Amino acid sequence: METITNPRLDTPGWPEVAVGLIAYVVLLVPLALAFGLLPHDQPVLLGVIGSTVGGLAGTGAFAAAVGLRIRSLRPFGFKPVATRWLIIAAGLGIAGYGLNLIIQSVYVAFFGYDDPQGILHAAARGGALPFIASLIGGAVFTPFGEEVLFRGVVANALNRYGLLAGVGLSSIIFGLAHGVSVILPVAIMVGALSAILFRQTGAIWPCIILHGVYNGANSVASALSFTPMQ
């Protein structure tokens, strides 16, 4: 007797999306509240700690989604990928940073200056140790945590409904998770580039590389643009 399997039961679906996003909010709220209790007159310290918050919430939410039904990492994009895709991802990370500058310029022209990530820039400009710590948090840990959730779970599940859902809708969800400010269109752009990579490769590693290179370029540019804070 032939066994018929349903491939949708072996890949992330709406249950994983719902659990992952709910867990992300549940984790993010107490982390944000705890973050608010830190001394506000220490922007460098706040920036170093803040660079890891998204990674913590994303990794925890991903773990909740994985533990729901599938309990295997491969369906979430943890699979080998050709080296050329990693190189392409790094190039897209640099290109994404260039697009970020354009988006910010347009935003400032219409809405004025807005820097909701000021503390992250402060950490990047705070000297060698804060820069390295914030770079590890912002360009390694946060890209991993956010990508495994928003691409490995969300975009992955939405891909079955086509390009607009897998890339467009998932990148909007990713953008909204970063708040309504100049970061919204920037995050949507980065999310779209990453979602396209995931749709093409089915692997999470190029997405992490893209996100990490983009965040790293942002940190390096911030550190080089201003003299270190005292």
Automatic annotation (TrEMBL):
TM segment ranges: 17-38, 45-65, 85-110, 122-141, 161-190
Gene Ontology MF terms: endopeptidase activity; metallopeptidase activity
InterPro entries recorded: CAAX_protease (IPR052710), Rce1/LyrA-like_dom (IPR003675)
Span of domain CAAX prenyl protease 2/Lysostaphin resistance protein A-like: 131-216
Record key words, sorted: Hydrolase, Membrane, Metalloprotease, Protease, Transmembrane, Transmembrane helix
Pfam families per the UniProt record, alphabetical: Rce1-like (PF02517)
Keyword Protease: yes
GO biological process per UniProt: CAAX-box protein maturation
Protein's recorded name: CPBP family intramembrane metalloprotease
Record organism: Halopseudomonas pelagia
